[in-house]
Request: fold
Amino acid sequence: MREKPCEICKEVFSYKNKTKKYCSNACKQQALRNRETVLAKQVVSLNQSIPTVDNNELINQIFNKCIKQTEGMCNGMSIHHSILTFMKDMINTLRLGTKSDNKLKNQLERMQGLFNKLDQIAQEDKCEYGYITFEDSAVRMALNKLDNIKRLRKK
Ligand SMILES: [Zn+2]
Reply:
């Protein structure tokens, strides 16, 4: 058995397999999260390279579309869980990409909270093919939160 430092926590650990980079599952998970964040930031910087559209303006446009989609989703429409996951990731990416506008950042944070909640409900309610239709109580909760966000957006 040989020893080397973990790439995440720098703690020295012993290993049999030399491709092993992390001391524990927790550090392996952390490394995965770090990679996902780097990826999300890259997506945002790609968006920033689009000319003629101001970055916050672009984020605003995408955000408004996301609100419309969410309303449709609450309107008895059945959607695939992967679409919900995609929208959740997109909101997170937009939140990471918002640097200068604190008001927008705050709204995106609330939206992210809503998506985390919807995703949690969806995990329990999806059918065997991965489709979800939200129950009345979930729809009411989501539409209430959406109304709050929309009110904030008008101010
Ligand atoms: Zn470690």
